[in-house]
Amino acid sequence: MSQRSVFLFQTTWARWALPRGISGAAIAAAPRGRPGGGMASQPHSLSYVGCNFLRQRLVLSTLSGRPVKIRKIRAKEENPGLRDFEASFIRLIDKVTNGSRIEINQTGTTLYYQPGLLYGGVLEHDCSPHRSIGYYLESLLCLAPFMKHPLRIVLRGVTNDQVDPSVDVLKATALPLLKKFGIDGEGFELKITRRGMPPKGGGEVIFACPVRKVLRPIQSTDPGKIKRIRGTAYSVRVSPQIANRIVDSARSILNKFIPDIYIYTDHMKGTSSGKSPGFGLSLVAETTNGTFLGAELASNPQGQGTAVLPEELGLNCAKLLLEEIYRGGCVDSTNQSLVLLLMTLGQQDVSKVLLGPLSPYTIEFLRHLRSFFQIMFKIETKPSHEELQGGEKVLMTCVGIGFANLSKTIK
């Protein structure tokens, strides 16, 4: 049986990370580092402080092969260390890789991660109900094209919440973006089989992605004009009429701008409706040049905050979409970091993309790209004028590092 992962733990606090069927004694006796070389031959590890941007650091570490050490994770808080949803994310990274080495100290405030090889295959993962499936899916979108075997994973948990991008918006905006880089085919899908709302979740999503040897560079500098708006108003364990009320209120604003609007109503019943009641709306605007800009809103979780009226939610979501269109660019603010990563990993050719104002998350992601891949972007601000209406735009240019999936043989 091949060694899946090597874990070294000082206490039983982190028992959650032990792979099935492997005893603690076997782990302690397992060889250190990767086969064929000790710790001395490892690339220089990067060191960070604090819990922020944990996903960015682990994803870029996995792709670059550089180990990473994160210290003082919530060290001064009353409840220090990694949270359940972060522990679940580390378990997921372990499942999709082979030979990763993860060390966590007694209090959970220090994490050392030495990446293994991206393996893929057919997997299942139970996500923490504290964060939505989108939290985990965003990172899988970055890693999936570079696996040894095509990834097909079933994720269970919360499908729509107020914090992370929902599965609906990622399906409508991130998947077309990956297709621009040549990641496409029959085995490329993202499907919601069951919806789950917070706090209890109960949703289920299937994500499948083919592998690619190289990514093609992109030149995406003209977002085009909005030609249609599509959306989904969903409701689970509440009256089906709520979804219709959301649609009517959203259309009352959007109809003033464009006639081609279609918002589907999705009311799931029985086992497909998860364990908690809730409703929400996701909207996506498509442009003449194939750009997708998304916005979404979900109701407050059961027993938390004041109840939200469906009409109010529909109006606010429509306004959020208009704000996203005002920000503009060829990629919406949710997927800025994804497009920059794929440009970095592309062939050794120039890639350009026009973005709206950079989010703080994206700015930190650019700093991490410089640390892990030694790549810097040329950033030009484009003031708004007749052709580029709305907010200030930023033209991002870089030369890809020529990242190749070594597991993928040339056919």
TrEMBL record:
It is found in: Nucleus, Nucleolus. Its main location: nucleus. This is RNA 3'-terminal phosphate cyclase-like protein. GO terms for molecular function: RNA endonuclease activity. It comes from the Eukaryota. As part of the small subunit (SSU) processome, it plays a role in 40S-ribosomal-subunit biogenesis in the early pre-rRNA processing steps at sites A0, A1 and A2 that are required for proper maturation of the 18S RNA. Activates BMS1 by promoting GDP/GTP exchange. Does not have cyclase activity. The keyword Signal does not apply. Coiled coil: none annotated. GO terms for cellular component: small-subunit processome. Belongs to the RNA 3'-terminal cyclase family. Type 2 subfamily. One of its GO terms (biological process) is endonucleolytic cleavage in ITS1 to separate SSU-rRNA from 5.8S rRNA and LSU-rRNA from tricistronic rRNA transcript (SSU-rRNA, 5.8S rRNA, LSU-rRNA). Part of the small subunit (SSU) processome, composed of more than 70 proteins and the RNA chaperone small nucleolar RNA (snoRNA) U3. Interacts with BMS1. It comes from Chrysemys picta bellii (Western painted turtle). Keywords: Nucleus, Ribosome biogenesis. The keyword Glycoprotein does not apply. PANTHER family: RNA 3' TERMINAL PHOSPHATE CYCLASE, RNA 3'-TERMINAL PHOSPHATE CYCLASE-LIKE PROTEIN. Pfam families: RTC, RTC_insert.
